[in-house]
Amino acid sequence: MKLQREISAGVAIPIVAAVLWFAPPWAFGSLAGVLGLATLLEFYRIAEAAGLPVPKTLALLFAAGILAAAAAPAASPSGVVVAGGIFLLAALFSAAVLVSDVPLPLSLAGAGAALLGIALVVLPFCGLMWLDRAYLPGATAKFGARLVFFLFATIWACDSFAYYVGKNLGRHKLAPEVSPKKTIEGAIGGFAGSLLVAAIASSLFLREFRPVEAAIVGGLASSAGQLGDLVESMFKRAAGVKDSGVFLPGHGGFYDRVDSLLFAVPVLCGAILLKMTT
Fold first, then answer.
1. Adjacent-strand bridge partners of 175
2. Can you give the residue ranges of every domain in the chain?
3. Closest CA to 268 of 204, 203, 201
4. 90: alpha, beta or left, given left = phi > 0 and alpha = psi -120 to 50?
5. What are the helix (H) ranges across 50-183?
6. pLDDT by position in tens, the chain (length 278)
7. Model's pTM, two decimal places?
């Protein structure tokens, strides 16, 4: 299974890198938007498998609108606009449940699941698009593309180190009810691996960050990513499903492959915003 994951990653990563470096600027936004919608659909299917009725059609339509707006070249939503948009979505999803066939006792859960999907899936993909266009004064060419690649590299390093350290040295379970195979030793190994790869990445292709800075950001992002992986495992356990879907051998569904990314993206976005103001 792990070998299949490595082979599939070896195919997917060069494709994403090619889009970042060589395709027109809109191409990555389009790819992220499609992946975001596919992931959101899988999230809603997990919610339905757990017995939570979700107004999928309306939610996916609004998600498509949000992702399209985020992919626009001039997209730079303020915090007020984002907050207002989230409120509007919450109100609309509540109204959608009101006029749907959702049983009354499940109305709160259905509306909550719809909004949670937007917050956990769509907003991080919007953040990923923003990172691709991010710029710092004095940064060299393709700074945004290198940021995204840095994020992928640290998450991949964390996943790989966590697997091999946990397999060979793991003794203490991290979250046995949610993910029985994950260990504390594996989580520590993943964190250490992300620190190492992030520091190396700053020396090789992201010199706008000092190695120590990159290691801190990469370590925090990877730790958030491990939390995101556990959160998805929790959802799947609650729904009684093994994978969110199937799109590549050994990888499961889209959500299975981006669960760590969804939690790591906001960390890197925060780091860039902080660096912009200092």
1. 179
2. 2-276
3. 201
4. alpha
5. 56-71, 79-98, 107-117, 123-133, 143-169
6. 455 555 555 666 677 778 888 888 789 999 999 999 999 999 999 999 999 888 888 889 888 988 888 887 665 555 545 656 667 767 777 777 666 667 777 888 888 898 889 989 999 999 999 999 888 888 888 999 999 999 999 999 999 999 999 999 999 999 999 998 999 999 999 999 999 999 999 999 999 999 999 999 999 999 999 999 999 999 999 999 888 877 655 567 899 889 999 999 999 999 998 888 87
7. 0.89
Please report, to the nearest 10 degrees, the dihedral formed by the alpha carbons of residues 20, 15, 124, 253 taken in order: 170
The Cα 276–Cα 47 span in angstroms is 38
130 touches 70 (CB < 8 A) = yes
Quickly tell me which residue has 């964190």 as its tokens: 191
